[in-house]
Fold:
Amino acid sequence: MTFPDSASPAFLKKLVSKTWVEEFEKTGTGLLRMLGGSMAPLIESGDQIFVERVSAAKVCIGDIITFWRDNILVTHRVIRKFKQGDKIFFVERGDQYSIHSIVPFTSVVGKVQQIKKNEHIYYLNSFIWKLYNKIAGIALLCTYYVRHIGRSTPGLPVPVKNLIKKIFVLFRWLMEWFCKMLIRTCQKKS
Structure:
């Protein structure tokens, strides 16, 4: 991982310092504070995430990764993994977004292992969070394919397009509901 040279120092101070990047290079781990809500309700603005460097083989559908996009660090969910030649790529998406992008593994900083919300820490390697992340990843992958079919099929009847939109809304609502339920349950236990 290299620190982007073209990023303005003022902008990077808001996100991550060069010292943080150097320390991450040495230890392979780091703590970041989230600034956006693209992964809400699981990761909201102000939450802290613990990121750990991992091999590409350790990243699966549903995992949450932190990666460089231009000059900023982004944290989103992996919804697809594929190989092209000898390079590995991920299709990523924020849980609150309907758009996706392709990220080469060389841009990946690491995988999110823990989330700190208020005084509670959520360990994403626990069974329940692995299960939730896998279900969320598969649900988002399904919407990715359904959306692709809807866009690549000219003359698709309006009722079918409306059904696709309703499927998106239903998946998002179910993911948010399940995530909020898990967060409440985990808070009650601690």
User: Anything to note?
Assistant: The beta strands are 29-33, 48-52, 64-69, 72-84, 87-93, 101-104, 108-117, 120-123. The chain is about 40% helix and 30% strand. The helical segments are 9-15, 18-27, 127-152, 158-189. The radius of gyration is 17 Å.
